[in-house]
Write a structure and sequence with these properties.
single chain; Arc Repressor Mutant, subunit A; about 140 residues; mainly alpha
Length: about 140
């Protein structure tokens, strides 16, 4: 089985997964409710306060969207991933296979391979020296 340089990441099987820290004050806003509130205010059908009460959206968020400080359409939370989901899945499958044959890949080996992938492709990375931080795992079947 020949593998490219993107075929190596993660190993050590474990049933735990690092989770993203959740903001306690974050409110789940329906995108449809927010867009309806924005349109209601823009057309003059209702005031900003009335739109917030009627559609249950935070007033500061509505004001920010109306003023253009933030985009009107919903945006994902967090930074954009460096590797695609397909690349990540390939890496996970490979490392699980390596573990099953008795060759676990350790943290420094895996992070070094990710660095190689980023450097070869010339991708922009927020990581220092293109080496990912230690808590960057999104797959529950694998932890470092």
């Amino acid at each position: 089985m020949l593998l490219s340089s993107i075929d190596i990441l993660f190993c050590r099987l474990n049933n735990t997964m690092t989770t993203q820290r959740q903001c306690k004050n974050r409110v789940n806003i329906s995108p449809d409710a927010m867009l309806t509130a924005i349109n209601g205010v823009r057309t003059g059908a209702m005031s900003r306060t009335a739109a917030c009460r009627m559609y249950g959206v935070p007033k500061t968020t509505l004001l920010d969207k109306l003023a253009g400080r933030v985009p009107e359409d919903p945006t994902p939370i967090g930074r954009k991933p460096i590797l695609t989901m397909a690349e990540e899945r390939k890496l996970v499958d490979f490392t699980l296979e390596m573990c099953s044959i008795g060759y676990p890949l350790y943290r420094n080996e895996l992070l070094g391979e990710v660095k190689k992938i980023i450097n070869i492709d010339g991708r922009q990375s927020p990581f220092k020296d293109n080496i990912p931080e230690k808590n960057t795992i999104r797959h529950p079947e694998v932890t470092l």
